[in-house]
Structures are given as structure tokens and as C-alpha cells.
């Protein structure tokens, strides 16, 4: 039986666009992010989800808590949805990274490069896709909400579309956006991408 996965990027926090947070602790939603997360709940409730999973990062758990309140679901932390481990780059300002040749290489060749001391996007894709397959086995025929991070969501979408990870800059995944996959045994398809729910 096919399962629908609603891939939600966490809502905004004060460091979005300024700092590569990665798995940096204590990154929480700002006021606008909390409003956006609250707006996600009623939209996702219309899809009648049966389960709600989230990356263990605070910004994802906060977003999931707002969705869960509207949908009557308890969020489950899920390591498969965790952010990429950016190793030595964790917590670095994008302004500082701009002059790093390794950073330029990472963005040009995601399919083969890796952050220093961290996790490649390929590794993140493998664990995230394995997590999707686990969810499909647990919720056949159901709708599941999965709250995660931009690059991890991109990795799942590119897997489903059969794209190389080097295509990661071809589309955006915005804060508090919803993308959807329909998965079945041996296949799947993208239903929609980057729906912006919050105003």
C-alpha cells in the first residue's frame, strides 16, 4: 500500500540565512517562526495524518509540537530526519564560509564532497530514505508528517526524482514549507514541492 509523506521544513529561527546551524544545540524558533508553525497545523490537519515524526533538533521539535497540537498527534523524535552533521562548519557564519575553498567545493559537488569532520549529503540521503522506508512499513496506506531540514528534504526529493545531489541548487525548500511524496513498494513520486503555508 502507498504511503503519503508530508515533508515539512522547520519554521524560521533568528539564524536562518546567517549561520550554518547544523546540529548546533539551542536553535529555537523566533516569534515569526512560532506563528508560521501554528499556521501549519490547520493545513496539515486536512490531510488526516496518522503519525508525526521530527528531527531531534529543537527548531524541528518546536515546529512539530505546533503541528501536533492541531492534528492531535504526539511528535516522535526521529534521527533519520536529523540535519546533516556539518562537522567543523557547525555554527559558522555563511559570510566566513564564503572564502573557504572547501565550502565552494561542497556546494558545487554535493554528490561527492563532505564537510570537514562531518557527514556527506549522500550519507544523509541514505539514512533519510531508509527512514522513509521504515515509516512506510509502519504506516502502510497512511499519511505521515515528517519535520526536517532543507538539505535533508532536498535529498529525499532528489532521490524520488532520480536526480543527482548536484542538483540541490535547482529548487528551494523554504522555512515552514510543505512538500509531499507518495511512496509504494519499489517506487514513488513527488506530489508537490515547497508549498508555503504561512503568510
From TrEMBL:
Annotated Gene Ontology cellular component terms: cytoplasm
Alphabetized GO MF terms: phosphatase activity
InterPro entries: His_Pase_superF_clade-1, His_PPase_superfam, PGM_Phosphatase
SMART domains from the UniProt entry: PGAM
CDD domains tied to this protein: HP_PGM_like
Superkingdom of this protein's organism: Bacteria
Protein name: Histidine phosphatase family protein
Amino acid at each position: 500500500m502507498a504511503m503519503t509523506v508530508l515533508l515539512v521544513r522547520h519554521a524560521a529561527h533568528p539564524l536562518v540565512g546567517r549561520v550554518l546551524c547544523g546540529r548546533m544545540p539551542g536553535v529555537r524558533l523566533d516569534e515569526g517562526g512560532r506563528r508560521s508553525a501554528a499556521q501549519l497545523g490547520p493545513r496539515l490537519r486536512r490531510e488526516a495524518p496518522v503519525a508525526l515524526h521530527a528531527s531531534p533538533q529543537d527548531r524541528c521539535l518546536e515546529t512539530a509540537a505546533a503541528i501536533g497540537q492541531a492534528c492531535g498527534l504526539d511528535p516522535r523524535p526521529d534521527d533519520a530526519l536529523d540535519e546533516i552533521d556539518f562537522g567543523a562548519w557547525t555554527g559558522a557564519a555563511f559570510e566566513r564560509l564564503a572564502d573557504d575553498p572547501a565550502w565552494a567545493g561542497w556546494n558545487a559537488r554535493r554528490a561527492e564532497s563532505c564537510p570537514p569532520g562531518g557527514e556527506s549529503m549522500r550519507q544523509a540521503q541514505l539514512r533519510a530514505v531508509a527512514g522513509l522506508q521504515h515509516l512506510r512499513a509502519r504506516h502502510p496506506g497512511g499519511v505521515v508528517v515528517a519535520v526536517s531540514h532543507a538539505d535533508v528534504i532536498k535529498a529525499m526529493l532528489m532521490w524520488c526524482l532520480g536526480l543527482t545531489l548536484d542538483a540541490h541548487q535547482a529548487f528551494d525548500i523554504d522555512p515552514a514549507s510543505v512538500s509531499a511524496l507518495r511512496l509504494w513498494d519499489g517506487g514513488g513520486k513527488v506530489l508537490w514541492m515547497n508549498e508555503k503555508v504561512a503568510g
